[in-house]
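Thread: "does anyone have the structure for this chain?"

Original post by V.I.:
We have the sequence but no experimental structure in hand. Need at least a predicted one for the grant figures.
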Amino acid sequence: MKCRTILLFGALTVGIAAVAIAQSSTVTPSQDPSTQGQNQNPSAQDSTSQSSASSSDTANDALSVFSGSIMKSGSKYVLHSTTGDYDLDDQSQAESFAGKEVEVAGTLDKATNTIRVKSIEPPSSED
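Reply from O.Q.:
Generated one for you, tokens below.
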């Protein structure tokens, strides 16, 4: 009986330790590309920097620049980037850039994966 209690206690300890380790090894915002720029001072951000998304509700108002190409997906245009596809709320602006590489300035609504478009422009050259 004493041996069983010790084994049960040991197994419980190992289980709790595994949970604690798993929680401590989660990705921090600075490592997660989908939250790039979120922890930086917005005034210090370069307006041409590439940012894939803001993940917290408080960062939804931050203007970000998304790079990729405008593609047709079903009946709507989306921004296709290396981090995924994003719906665009301004379809008329997107249509004029169909099939082209662009930079979209706007804010990401993470709940709907939609960029609230401020502007769509050809990529700036960094020569």
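V.I.: this helps a lot. Helices lie at 2-24, 91-95.
O.Q.: and Residues 25-59 have pLDDT under 50 and may be disordered.
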